[in-house]
Amino acid sequence: MAQILEGDVLDERYLIGAAIARGGMSTVYRATDLRLDRPVAAKVMDPRYVDDASFRTRFEREARAVAHLNDESLVNVYDQGTDRAGHVFLIMELVDGGTLRELLRERGPMPPHAAAAVMRSVLKALSVAHSRNMVHRDVKPENVLISSTGKVKLADFGLVRAAADAKITSNSVIVGTVAYLSPEQVTGHSITPASDVYSAGVLLFELLTGSTPFNADSSLGVAMKRLSEDVPPPSELIDGVPAEFDELVAVACMRNPAERFADAAEFAEALDDIAVRLALPPFRVPAPTDSAAGRAATQDETWAASSGRPNSWKETAAYPQDDFGGPQRDRTGQFPADDSPTTFAQPTGAVIPPTTPVPGPEQTQPELGGYRDRAPEVPPHAPEVQAPGRNRIEPRSAAKSTPPGRQRTRRGCALWIVIALLATLGMGLGSWWLGSGRYGEVPSITGLSQPQAMSAITDAGFEPVVDRRYHNSVAASQVIGTEPVAGQQAVRGDDVKVLVSLGRPTVPPYPANHSPQAFSAALADRTLQEKVGSPVYSDDVETGGLVKSDPSPGVSVDVGTAVTVHYSKGKAPVQVPDVIGMSEDAARKRLESAGLVVADVKKVFSRDAKPDEVLDVSPGAGSGLIKGSSVTLQVNNGIEIPHVVGRKQDDALRALAKVGINQVEIRDAGRSSRPNGRVESVSPKEGELIDPDNPAAVVYVSRRTEVPSLLGRTIEKAREAAEKAGLELRVDGNAADGDRIFWQSPRPGADARAGDTVTVKGF
User: Which residues form a coiled coil (predicted)?
Assistant: First the structure.
């Protein structure tokens, strides 16, 4: 199957025009729908891939996906199919402008209000997809189209997936454009609308700064950086970005999807809140002045004229001159030039083959923070085609013959006259050129806009070169003047600097690593002088690092202002507080609050302090230390004798064991008024401390008992009663167990000690 060519009719309906863009798997052409007589864009698959099921599936998926979505922020798909020649195609809306990539290439980073205008439409398109549970997966400037009327549309849904199915493919290949991939696209985790939010956050970062956040020597390196690094604040790369936009990018580009905006609608709501808070003015996004689609349109018009075919292309509307203050130019449309996003193997433990450096997405230069008004060079015009019927016809009088001799004489005379005139003219021109003719006067550009100033310099015969400088009185983006100054003579064709104001300089932000060299360079870039102030203590900045400046970052100052910088002399010293007599926990908290670390606690026995009381601190109280230094505590580990007097013997033993006193000697308390088995006293006494290395104590237990009345009882019953009272029974005489007692000693109720003997007599 042959490649489709300009002039062919696709599917007996679409007249193919010039190519707008060529990608890895397809080419986009301008085309005319002959049935409806309207311009369209025809996306035709490369013949090499028509038999590849995966590529055909992607074409069909794009058509089906957009067919389910309907919004002015989306590029419509009108038709899809395969013609008789085997060409697989999509017929889409022709957006008569260009891509966001081309606009960034022309003008550089955008001011916040312009970036917000672009993002509002992009997020609207994504929110429509997200509401249908679809994930775009390839948000990038090449897929954002701008019409000549300022409408921003999202294109290329070839990678769209349902959120539930948007996971890594079975062969571990990740699809998407490297610079805009979310971390989960790199690692192969589930893809959700939050993945598009990350890509949109990177897009916003690029709109504000002119570049994407991560750079490396290979596409794999660029992808892997987002797994370990956060997207930096745009304000670190370019001046004039409000803190609200830094925060917006930070939330959208959180590495954890759960911490981002849930979907594009939530992202858009936050953007609208910021726009209201900052009172951002409304803005119509201009189409690029030089786009691939524009060149394709010119080529079509030329081809139509040369072939005699009527030009069926709709004329592209001119965009207003006041959009950016530049000259009015025609705009024509373009579709994404690359419909085959970068693919690379996911690191799943297998050996990764060496990667060659792959250039990332095009990066535009900030040009010191301005939104450039200078358009790129205009491409060479198409060759001029001579219209039919314009061949030159000689007058009849010229056809009359002249005698050969006279004709030669006249020609010779005329030739010498011409030579003489040319010689005279040459000498005059040479004298003029060597004198004043090669010089021109630099024109005055006071009061002109930058584009007007550039045109004035060009018209005067010079090459304008923009030189942006800080200025105390001329507002940012306004023209200051020229170098050489207006009125001076300069060689025509030489460069003349158009001095454009950056406004008053502001004190730069502190470098993330607090580098003195980086801050000094940033000051110099803004014409500011560095004045070194006295060093200061800092708990957060290492010795020699930048701590603060006066004025502070962000303050607007005059050109050449001296900024006083203070560098760190390390952490401030602290005095060791007096913690002797405190408990260990209280002492530890007091020391840590002072910025010190308790590195060791030594246990020491002392009878003169309470248990767990701090006996000493080293270094001693009042010593000066660097914050974060270590100290050692000495803490009393003495064991306090618990309350056991009056308790039963077993209860007393358990109480002693609980505090670590296991070496307990039980002794008879002797005479005691306490009931039998109760603790009379303990040694050491209750409340005293003992050494944990010798945890011994003596417990004195009462053995007192009362002699029971045995009179009238049988010998057998009396013996049971005596034993119950802890006494021994002795029978005086030959009384048997069944005999009754008529006498006992000691008498009933008398005090006795356990083990004493009671003597009885029976009959």
Answer: none
The Cα 512–Cα 236 span in angstroms is: 9
In the chain, the largest separation of any two C-alpha atoms, in whole Å, equals 197
Beta bridge partners of 99: 145
All residues at 6 or more sequence positions from 355 whose CB lies less than 8 Å from its CB, including other chains: 218, 219, 220, 221, 344
**Which pTM does this prediction carry?**
0.45
Residue 194 burial (CB count, 10 A): 26
Distance, CA of 511 to CA of 547 (rounded, Å) = 10
**CATH 1.10.3110.10 holds for 516-567:** no
The string of pLDDT tens digits covering residues 93-143 is 999 889 999 999 988 999 999 999 999 999 999 999 999 989 998 999 999
C-alpha–C-alpha distance, residues 507 and 519, integer Å: 10
Among left, alpha and beta (phi > 0; psi -120 to 50; other), residue 418 is: alpha
| Residue of 46, 52, 71, 138 marked active site | 138
Known active-site residue 756: no
- Answer whether 549's CB lies under 8 Å from 582's CB: no
pLDDT tens digits for range 594-643 = 889 999 999 999 888 899 999 999 999 888 888 888 999 999 999 999 99
What is the sign of the dihedral through the CA atoms of 603, 604, 606 and 608?
A: negative
Q: Got the DSSP string for 172-193?
A: -EEES-GGG--HHHHHT----H
User: Which amino acid, 506?
Assistant: T
Helix, strand, coil content of the chain in percent (nearest 5) = 30, 25, 45
Q: In the predicted model, is pLDDT for residue 386 greater than 90?
A: no
Fold of 640-702: Trypsin Inhibitor V; Chain A (3.30.10)
